[in-house]
Specification:
Elements (H helix, E strand, L loop, with lengths): L21 H4 L6 H4 L3 E2 L2 E3 L5 E8 L7 E4 L3 E4 L1 E2 L4 E5 L7 E8 L8 E8 L11 E2 L2 H6 L9 E4 L9 E12 L8 E15 L3 E4 L13 E8 L12 E2 L3 E2 L6 H5 L1 H18 L14 H6 L4 E3 L19 E5 L11 E4 L37 H16 L4 H7 L12 E6 L3 E3 L5 E3 L5 E7 L4 E9 L11 E10 L5 E5 L5 E5 L2 E3 L6 E4 L2 E6 L3 E6 L4 E7 L2 E8 L36 H10 L14 H9 L20 H10 L3 H10 L2 H20 L15 E4 L8 E6 L10 E3 L14
Parallel strand pairs: 2-9
Antiparallel strand pairs: 1-3, 3-7, 4-5, 4-8, 6-7, 8-9, 10-11, 11-14, 12-13, 12-15, 15-16, 15-17, 18-19, 19-20, 21-22, 21-34, 22-23, 24-25, 25-26, 26-27, 27-28, 28-29, 30-31, 31-32, 32-33, 33-34, 35-36, 36-37
Helix pairs in contact: 5-7, 7-8, 11-12, 11-13, 12-13
Organism: Jacana jacana
Pfam families: AMOP, C8-3_MUC4, Somatomedin_B, Sushi, VWD
Main location: membrane
């Protein structure tokens, strides 16, 4: 019995393994596949209702399937005609990987286990939701000149039922704000359409809802097979996008939508005044678009305004790109947003309605989720979006909204520091020292006592077809963890594909490119580019380029004097970057051989390795073998022969880039040299973009006067003029100075 994986998935048993690594190591228990579930699809909206099947185990038709999530929420499953079991995902108030257990005996025992990935509702593929056709009409329905039929469409194959019901659901939060009794609830309201054909489309003429429902102004539609009763929970369903329920609001809204919305806006403003000020604890915005796009550990593209997707910025006219702070603020779980114009300058709400607006509720939610204000997407809708409808879209009170959600400028923003490693390993430290270290083994790139952050790199030998046989090593894997976060490893597999492991298990990004994990977020871009964003604001970017990994670590300023490893001591001083484990310091003018000894000193110890050893060769070479292979002696200075035909081409390609020249000579490949040159240029550009920028902060126009200029960074000048009939005292123009203060006296008219 001890050798069965029933109830034991993820564990190493006496004689065999129930861990994901057992496939490649060939030590799986005989029933591993039966009990440790592979599911497809593996992800779906946190709203639930998604049908997924268990791929690797078959059940007989009489099994009574029950699926249990987080050991507390159960849904009914079924066995299909092909013998595959299916589960229905539940409504959850959180995102991320959710433990799943399955029972085939009606819920007596749950021996089968796996995980389900719960996803933010707006990050789910469009095909999985029903579409509100002509969305603007839905948004403004019932306001002047917005009436007639509304229609929705859906993928009919998504529900295997001839007839469906369409239901209306509303979202509310009850209890006292920021108290223990604050709770979130999705509530079934009423049936909009009963037993209609599952044709994939439906049109209707909206009528005001009964009075008891018309106070619900934010919600969703749900389509379910008509065999289920209205509002039955966790049944197969298709949800719409979350939207303002303008179309079902009462007669008072339809009679005079402006007055109705103005009253709501005023009520919201009064409520806001009683709530704590979240603005003082959110991170300030980067000063420039270049900084915002470079600080990838703390800011991520706001999908509502993306320069790479043509800058369609509906809510931010005049902006070309916006970013959101990745982490919610510590106490109030608030979010930051920062928008920039075509010159790369920040747009502030004080100057323009296109300015960025911070959020009382972070759009992505924040761990541990489950309770307001941390519910992904929906808390944000309630505090920051529906109020925007009241004040800005359905009435002309946008100034009220902007006053409560005014942009932060960038006076206290401090850019992070960056360190990188790439090619036939070349290292650039946080302080800007560069060196080449060609050890073979596993090494600490950076570790910090501040947050127990650890980033480790493994180098492996790389052979090139026309190489000289000179030993070439390159980064082949990078593993990382902060405090007790999930462990992430990015590595080249043997067929040179980029693999990502989450707690020793290979994960794929086929369904989701963004994962909410424990202690970090993980994003995979299309071009083999993986970014990990830890809760401290530190970021790790890994790219696969030409058979080598390139890794960049970004650390916020609070890590100053709290780092060690191959990336040095981050303190703006290169002199102590060669610091050994025992704190002795070697001169920056050390020889390549001495640098080799420094590198070897930072070999990882077995007990603290974050890597996964799931093949015989990894076990033999890195787990049982030495962490630093002392018998491997690299070429320290490659020989450059003027008669060598490659040298001429190398000079043209590399110009004066020493790393590019080094790699062409050791690998005999111009392609590798070019990749190295690209990585080196990327790092230089990143450091350039992250240079601190001085801001003097926003300046308003004088009462009874005007101002000209909206750039508040070093060297910018703002000019002032008085309205007719007023005279001028103070400065006519003020310039942002190196001290971070404005020149001249305040202007009055």
């Amino acid at each position: 019995a001890q050798d069965s994986c029933a109830h034991q998935c993820g564990k190493l048993l006496g004689a065999c393994s129930c861990q994901a690594t057992c496939h490649s190591l060939g030590n799986c228990c005989p029933d591993y596949k039966e009990y440790c579930l592979q599911i497809s699809p593996y992800s779906g909206s946190l709203m639930g209702g998604k049908d997924f099947s268990i791929e690797n185990a078959t059940f007989n038709a009489s099994s009574v399937m029950v699926c249990r999530f987080k050991q507390e929420i159960t849904t009914q499953g079924y066995v299909g005609q092909d013998g595959r079991a299916h589960c229905i995902s539940p409504l959850l108030y959180e995102t991320g990987f959710i433990p799943l257990e399955v029972s085939a005996d009606g819920g007596k025992t749950f021996p089968y286990s796996g995980t389900w990935l719960s996803v933010h509702h707006s990050k789910v593929a469009d095909g999985e939701k029903c579409t509100l056709e002509n969305q603007t009409k839905w948004q403004y329905y019932g306001t002047p000149n917005n009436d007639g039929n509304l229609s929705l469409t859906w993928t009919q194959q998504a529900l295997t039922a001839p007839k469906v019901n369409i239901e209306v659901w509303g979202y509310q939060e009850t209890g006292d704000s920021y108290s223990e009794n604050w709770s979130a609830e999705w509530k079934y309201l009423y049936i909009l359409a009963k037993e209609i054909p599952n044709s994939g489309n439906f049109s209707f003429l909206p009528v005001p809802a009964e009075e008891k429902y018309s106070t619900w102004d934010f919600g969703m539609l749900r389509i379910t097979p008509s065999s289920y009763s209205g509002g039955q929970s966790n049944v197969p369903s298709i949800w719409s996008s979350d939207h303002a329920l303008a179309w079902h609001l009462g007669q008072d809204f339809r009679k005079d939508s402006k007055a109705w919305a103005t009253a709501k806006c005023t009520e919201w403003e009064k409520k806001e005044e009683k709530l704590p000020d979240f603005m003082e604890e959110i991170i300030d915005c980067p000063c420039t678009l270049a900084q915002a796009r470079a600080d990838t550990g703390r800011f991520h593209t706001d999908y509502g305004c993306d320069i790479e997707k043509g800058s369609v910025c509906t809510y931010h006219p005049g902006a070309v790109h916006c970013v959101r702070a990745i982490q919610a603020s510590p106490r109030y779980a608030a979010g930051q947003q920062c928008c920039y114009d075509h010159t790369g300058t920040q747009i502030l709400t004080n100057d323009s309605t296109g300015g960025s607006t911070p959020d009382r509720g972070h759009d992505w939610g924040s761990p541990p989720f489950l309770k307001p204000p941390r519910i992904p997407g929906f808390s944000h809708w309630l505090y920051d979006v529906i109020s925007f409808y009241y004040c800005c879209l359905w009435s002309d009170n946008c100034h009220v909204y902007m006053k409560k959600r005014s942009s932060s400028d960038c006076r206290t923003y401090r850019p992070p520091r960056a360190a990188s490693a790439f090619g036939d390993p070349h290292f650039l430290t946080f302080d800007g020292l560069n060196f080449t270290f060609k050890g073979l083994g596993e090494y600490t790139l950076v570790e910090s006592d501040l947050t127990s952050l650890r980033v480790q790199g493994r180098t492996q030998e790389v052979h090139f077809p026309n190489g000289t046989g000179a030993q070439v090593t390159g980064l082949a894997a990078v593993a990382m963890q902060e405090k007790d976060s999930d462990v992430i490893e990015v590595r080249y597999s043997e067929d040179l594909n980029l693999q990502v492991l989450l707690n020793q298990r290979v994960i794929n990004f086929s369904e989701q490119s963004w994962l909410d994990l424990k202690g970090l977020f993980l994003h995979s871009a299309a071009d083999q580019n993986i970014t990990a964003m830890f809760s401290s604001g530190s970021g790790v970017e890994i790219r696969g380029i030409g058979g080598f990994l390139t890794v960049t670590v970004l650390l916020p300023e609070k890590f100053m004097n709290h780092t060690q490893g191959l990336f040095g001591v981050m303190n703006d001083n290169t002199e102590d970057d060669y610091t050994f484990r025992n704190k002795t310091i070697m001169s920056v003018h050390a020889s390549p051989q001495q640098v080799f000894e420094f590198g070897a000193n930072w070999a990882v110890e077995n007990g603290s390795s974050l890597f996964t050893y799931d093949t015989e060769s990894l076990l033999n070479n890195f787990f049982y073998g030495e962490k630093h292979n002392a018998s491997f002696l690299p070429v320290f200075v490659p020989h450059e022969d003027p008669a060598d035909p490659l040298v001429e081409k190398m000079v043209v390609l590399c110009d004066s880039d020493p790393f590019c020249r080094f790699d062409v000579l050791t690998t005999r490949s111009l392609e590798v040299g070019n990749s190295t040159k690209r990585s080196h240029q990327n790092h230089k550009l990143l450091v350039e973009n992250l240079k601190p920028v001085i801001s003097c902060g926003w300046l308003g126009h004088p009462t009874n006067g005007t101002k000209n200029g909206t750039n508040y960074l070093l060297g910018s000048t703002i000019t002032f003029a008085c309205d007719q009939g007023y005279t001028h005292t103070g400065a006519k123009e003020r310039t942002c100075q190196v001290t971070g203060t404005w020149s001249g006296d305040p202007t009055t008219c």
